[in-house]
Amino acid sequence: MATLKNLDLNAWFADFSSQFQNLNMQEPGQWPPAPRYVSFIVVALLTVVLGWFAVLSDEQSALDAEREKEPQLKEDFNSKLTQAVNLPELRKQKSQVEEYVLQLEKQLPGKAEMDALLSDINQAGLGRGLQFELFRPGGIVMRDYYAEQPIAIKVTGRYHDIGSFTADVSNLSRIVTLHDMSILAPGATGGQNAPPRTDANATLTMEATARTYRYLDPNEVAEQKKAAAAAEKKK
């Protein structure tokens, strides 16, 4: 029985291999069944392999790239979800900030009002009986949305009058700040760190830099943006 099976198997292999002999490569349609089936399987496998490398590998790379974006997209989603949940509160805060900025802008004089503001500072000192030895506006420093003008001042007067003058300046309707202040008795040395005399009738000298601010008009804002863009291109 085993010999019969071996004979049948040998005969099958002999018949199978004989079908691959003397094949006409120009006429594959006339090949025996075994070569045709084997050729079909080989071509199908080659098609799958080539298709994988030609098409599916690119798709796999794109898929991997999208998977790498997933954590960042989730983070962005959670951030936007938090903003959406807090949107009413954020809008309220935005409105409060805009109102605060508007109030600050109202405290900034326009270009035409600067002379009046300088006069107000001068009158604040004279109103307290101070003697101006120096009141010299400096060059205007342009910022993004406002301009800053320093004023070198030097006044003499009594201690409490000088204190009242600084309070009056801080209470002006427009923003004025005092910097680099020093108060000395006449003839004293030691600069800013020298202790002032607090005798009510003593004549003291105060030196400081007052800084006033004004908003820029639309033309000046446009010029500032243009200058900033030009400077950025040079980098």
Gist of the model:
57% of the residues lie in helices and 19% in strands.
Structural class: alpha+beta
CATH homolog superfamily of the domain at 111-220:
Ribosomal protein S6/Translation elongation factor EF1B
Query: How many beta-strand segments?
Result: 5
Gyration radius from CA atoms, angstroms: 45 Å
Arithmetic mean of pLDDT: 78
> Any idea what the shape is?
rod-shaped
Question: Which runs of at least 5 residues are low in confidence (pLDDT < 50)?
Answer: none
Can you give a write-up of this model?
The chain has about 240 residues and is an alpha+beta fold. The protein has a domain of about 110 residues: Ribosomal protein S6/Translation elongation factor EF1B (Alpha-Beta Plaits), CATH 3.30.70.60. It contains 6 helices and 5 strands, in the order ααααβββαββα. Strands 1, 2, 3, 4 and 5 form a 5-stranded antiparallel β-sheet that branches. α4 packs antiparallel against α5. The longest helix is centred in the first third of the chain and has 53 residues. The protein starts with a helix and ends with a helix. The mean pLDDT is about 80.
